[in-house]
Amino acid sequence: MNSLLRLLAVVGGSLLLTAAAGALVDLLMRRVDDRHPETPLWHMLRRCRLPFRLLLLTALLRGSYRQIGWRPLEEHQAAAGQALTLVTVGASAWFVVRLASAVVESSYARYATGTRDPSRVRRVRTQVTLIMRIVTAVVAVVAAAVMLLTFPDFRAVGTSMLASAGIIGIVAGVAAQSTLGNLFAGFQIAFGDMVRIGDTVVVDGEWGVVEEVTLTFLAVRTWDERRITMPVSYFTGKPFENWSRGGIQMTGTVFLHCDHRAPVPLIREQLKQVLDGCEAWDGRGWSLAVTDTTPHTVVLRAVVTAKDPDDLWTVRCDVRERLVGWLAEKHPYALPRVATSPAVAGPQEA
After folding, report:
1. What is the pLDDT of residue 7?
2. How far is CA 112 from the centre of its chain?
3. Which of 108, 133, 107, 117 has its CA nearest to residue 187?
4. How far apart are CA 233 and CA 241, in angstroms?
5. Minimal CA–CA distance to 232: which of 251, 246, 212?
6. Does the pLDDT value for residue 228 go beyond 60?
7. Does the structure show a pLDDT above 70 at 73?
8. Which tops the pLDDT comparison, 143 or 156?
9. Is 212:197 a contact under the CB 8 Å cutoff?
10. Kind and range of the H or E run holding 286
């Protein structure tokens, strides 16, 4: 009966202390957040409540479980201590990752709020994403190593593992050459400002928006909602188009094939009217010129502008549709024709 009371006292006391400390810390964070709403750090730090409470609870139990005196627990005292140690290490890693995430994301939020340049915001966002992935990976590896070192068998083989680390490192480096290349390419993309999350790029003939950047791969979302996943080494070893570099404003073309009798000045006036009624056109510039001729048609090139690639696509489609419709209705003779009448004999053939 005495052992049962000690068990309830230790476990219940640990739970009460954890709840009280967690509530007190959360209250302080909430008050500081209310006083400083311009700083998102305190609000984001509140997301560390669960790992903080788990860490505190396991630490309290780890330090007091020997005082319980419960016979079943004493028979498995080493196993219980080992389990509590593993949970404590895991909770510590979870808490560190959440804490680092709150600090990094709050810094990014303040930077994004005070910066009006979208390209700089996308660059910092890409760097923040990769930094958090690196921190998470490092913390996970360190936590796993600490957990393994808590087992006596792993400590016993530590000397032999260190002795063979050089050979293993060489073999692993050769086997993971491609992976290491992608890893260093990820660092180069993050801090070399080559491509950022939100950039519009063209890869392998497909254009889309960069949706995710990791240390090993990059995901591009195409206009038809497909995802193209490519190794980051592709962007460091091959040329690609980045439509968001130097600003996202773009100039596009629309080609029309018309009959030689097409009224080019009237088409030019109609193009201006179409653009005036198109909300996606940014008004920076436009033109219409005859750029080529063939035995059957003339090629008209309309140049239009827009504030971003999506609006440019809309402008080009609208111009193409409305000009063709206007020609078919008002000037059908200007549309290209295919001659089907017999050829007229020349003077020498008559």
Report:
1. 63
2. 16
3. 133
4. 15
5. 212
6. yes
7. no
8. 143
9. yes
10. strand 281-293
